[in-house]
């Protein structure tokens, strides 16, 4: 069975991993894909903890590791090296029956006319990253933490320009009001429909400012707008500032209760984003099994 067959034939919810960045921060590292090169053992350890929870899909530590983001933030790492390393670490960790998703996300810049980034340059950066991740052996792709539907569609188009592997697309929402909206004002319905039409094999939501219970509302809206499977990957609660740091403090038990609502609302792929840990994913796995 390949990933496309799993997505189309699974009779039970498909389980993804949880956070990478906040897990790395807990051991004193800067969050980011650069750790796949600078601290590969730490990345592998996080992957291993999720693999041991019998997840179905493991996500590479390559969020925002496109040329535009790397150069704008002066990270001083090579695009090819960091993406190949990210793919390799995930592929080396998964067990038989588990699949690796190449993670592609924003450039960190706004597209014109809201910002200075030209769409063609963004397309080229995403296309390059996707090509490297496919070379690294990923089984499919996941587009994550996108606040702008326009940019998400550029990512999807770029991936499909170089690969025939399945692509899952997630949008980050900051409110459930007005049908669910991103910071850029995109509605959950419009996101689900546009990403479906553009060829995503599954659509949904991750990160953002919503807790799992609120995310269930977005899931329900998207479920009504597309025939594609719906993915939900919320944070461990609503982010809040404490002593200048962003904190996510929802317990694993409460997270699982919220994820139960996402499943009831129509999600069939579930995992966690910022602040979630292997314990959160274990609690979610137990919900799925029962």
Would you kindly provide a written description of the structure presented here, covering whatever features stand out?
The protein is an alpha/beta fold and 290 residues long. The chain has one domain: Homocysteine-binding-like domain (TIM Barrel, Alpha-Beta Barrel). 44% of the residues lie in helices and 14% in strands. An 8-stranded parallel sheet has the order 1-10-7-6-5-4-3-2, with helices on both faces. Strands 8-9 form a two-stranded antiparallel sheet. The mean pLDDT is 96.
Q: Keywords for this structure?
A:
alpha/beta; 290 residues; 10 strands; 8-stranded parallel sheet
CATH superfamily: Homocysteine-binding-like domain
CA(first)-CA(last) distance: 25 Å
Q: Which CATH first-tier class would you pick?
A: Alpha Beta
Please give the count of helices: 12
- How many β strands by DSSP? 10
